[in-house]
């Protein structure tokens, strides 16, 4: 089987829903990172065979195959195709998988994996609004027969996880505070500077709150009466984009590209759709087993902080080192632009491995429907 290499990784700053990036059209967000990726790698854009882009709310300005629109909006060759995919929060991590699989199969040599989401312009849930407004079920009769009419939501899933693993509100808030502390320290130290392509005058991630405290968090109302979840322990509604160039060994040589990391293992697992957010745990176990690695072999992990219970339970179940997990903060501090987050996390992971000299990196994230992708990479 052919090897797949990451030869470029770039992202926008992650903006807040009312920040400076919220008015940037999603196609232009995507175009910005695609053009920057081409410029930074020096690749001939006409040699890129496909653009695989994650986007969750594919409606309005994010409709009509955003991958193709963004590539053309960047002024790049019309000969390159594009496809937009939705695996919920893992959409652009799945884009990395599809791009890598195309290269590893030997059928493609250069593929862009990317993701875009402007949650300020296209609110979360916009793509299901039609069904709800029409009084239609999003799930249908077959689902109802299997799971009944119970609430299916990421919010309930996070609360169920907190209850199952016995996390108190204070436990969650301590985790959230550490996410902000790490992100603020990394931003101050300039760890993100190389990976970010500034846009609209924004040079840094907007969501980090270096001055937040446990006392401030304790003053927030729970998301629902009797719950331990508050907005402080959830990922932020955000705006952003990311892009990576995946190349075969043949393309690396032909186009004089510099590999940053090698794709080691790709895994995808489904789990309980009611709990929804637990799949990173079994998915990580499967990926590590397939790769012949243990959790202690992983030098850096990026696990999406959709809600604090997700990484907390993952850490407890895997016995992973908290210091090596989201070392520069996660989505609680930095934000979670849905379809873009997979590409953003992989960009962070690649650059952090290179900054620290670590060998193996692992990325995973919970996804709607009770799914999770896991990607293991090796620094080159």
Automatic annotation (TrEMBL):
<feature type="domain" description="Thiolase C-terminal">
    <location>
        <begin position="257"/>
        <end position="379"/>
    </location>
</feature>
<keyword id="KW-0012">Acyltransferase</keyword>
<keyword id="KW-0808">Transferase</keyword>
<dbReference type="GO" id="GO:0003985">
    <property type="term" value="F:acetyl-CoA C-acetyltransferase activity"/>
</dbReference>
<feature type="active site" description="Proton acceptor">
    <location>
        <position position="336"/>
    </location>
</feature>
<feature type="active site" description="Proton acceptor">
    <location>
        <position position="366"/>
    </location>
</feature>
<dbReference type="Pfam" id="PF02803">
    <property type="entry name" value="Thiolase_C"/>
</dbReference>
<dbReference type="InterPro" id="IPR016039">
    <property type="entry name" value="Thiolase-like"/>
</dbReference>
<protein>
    <submittedName>
        <fullName>Acetyl-CoA C-acetyltransferase</fullName>
        <ecNumber>2.3.1.9</ecNumber>
    </submittedName>
</protein>
<comment type="similarity">
    <text>Belongs to the thiolase-like superfamily. Thiolase family.</text>
</comment>
<dbReference type="InterPro" id="IPR020616">
    <property type="entry name" value="Thiolase_N"/>
</dbReference>
<feature type="domain" description="Thiolase N-terminal">
    <location>
        <begin position="5"/>
        <end position="249"/>
    </location>
</feature>
<dbReference type="InterPro" id="IPR020613">
    <property type="entry name" value="Thiolase_CS"/>
</dbReference>
<dbReference type="Pfam" id="PF00108">
    <property type="entry name" value="Thiolase_N"/>
</dbReference>
<feature type="active site" description="Acyl-thioester intermediate">
    <location>
        <position position="89"/>
    </location>
</feature>
<dbReference type="InterPro" id="IPR020617">
    <property type="entry name" value="Thiolase_C"/>
</dbReference>
<dbReference type="InterPro" id="IPR002155">
    <property type="entry name" value="Thiolase"/>
</dbReference>
